[in-house]
Amino acid sequence: MKKITAWAALLLIGAAVQHTANGQTKQLNSSKSIKSTTIKNQSAQQQIEKSLTIYFDALNKSSVEQAIGQYTTDGIFMPTGLPTATGTAQLKIAYTNVFKAIQLNVKFDIEEINLSGDIAFVRTQSHGTQLIHATGQKTEELNREFFLLKRENGTWKIARYMFNQPK
């Protein structure tokens, strides 16, 4: 059995060595293309992470302008238990109301980023506390978030955002 495995390995090595220069060039070009795509995806991923970091910072600072600045003009916010906000004017009202009601102190973990051209799906999880302004009560905050981002004029913006609590 060892002899058969050794012969099979030698045959595979021999076949690989017999590739023509043309075949090797094609392989190298293919490899360069994959690296180029990977670099582009890494750059896009970094830009997405930066955009979401700015958004998450806005939530912790209760900054309405900074939060809605990370949305597309037709962006949609779908908070649990509250009406859907569509477009900049409704987003401004929604975030103003949210920040009047609570102060967040949360950290976010990006769990997944999927890219396709100028569209990205991002799944995150947040954990920390929220201060309820009406009662002064501090409670634990834990959410799962789902974002759809679009690249507009070279910048990644939130097009759709929704969240819910895992328990």
Automatic annotation (TrEMBL):
Pfam families for the chain: DUF4440
N-terminal signal peptide: 1-21
Q: Does the keyword Signal apply?
A: yes
Q: Does the keyword Signal apply?
A: yes
Q: Which UniProt keywords apply?
A: Isomerase, Signal
The Swiss-Prot or TrEMBL record annotates one GO molecular function as: isomerase activity
What residues does the DUF4440 domain cover?
A: 49-158
Q: What is this protein called?
A: Ketosteroid isomerase-like protein
